[in-house]
Amino acid sequence: MRLGASYADIRIIRTQYEFVSAKNEKVSNIGRSEDEGFGVRVIADGAWGYASSGLMTKREIERRKGNNEPDRSVQPPKFDDVAEGRMLKI
């Protein structure tokens, strides 16, 4: 992939809520709301990465994407199959 990941996906979620409140058999409140957000999963250098946000703007997506340059001073985590004593390849 263009930014060096071997796998990536994005999930976009929009949830709409409608509600009616009643007290003593009388409607006291009616409302509607909506939430939206996204989550991105990637595999890069054998490690999973995840970012998410409740803001659905291009600026927020770019901010979550980061600078696209991995920090080589930090080794990516690897998944060990402890019971079998072998490294799990992703």
Walkthrough of the structure:
This protein is mostly beta strands and 90 residues long. It has one domain. It is built from one helix and five strands; from the N terminus they run βββαββ. A three-stranded antiparallel β-sheet has the order 1-2-3. It has a two-stranded antiparallel sheet with strand order 4-5. Strand 1 (7-23) and strand 2 (26-44) form a beta hairpin. It is elongated.
What Rg do the Cα atoms give?
21 Å
The succession of helices and strands, N to C, reads EEEHEE
**Whole-number mean pLDDT:** 76
Structural class: mainly beta
Put simply, the count of helices is 1
What low-confidence regions span 5 or more consecutive residues with pLDDT below 50?
67-90
Strand content: over 45%
Shape: elongated
DSSP E strands, number? 5
Main β-sheet, spatial strand arrangement: 1-2-3
Short description, anyone?
The chain has 90 residues and is mainly β.
Element layout with pairings:
Blueprint: E1 7-23, E2 26-44, E3 47-53, H1 58-65, E4 80-81, E5 86-87
Antiparallel strand pairs: 1-2, 2-3, 4-5
List key phrases describing it.
52% strand, mainly beta, two-stranded antiparallel ribbon
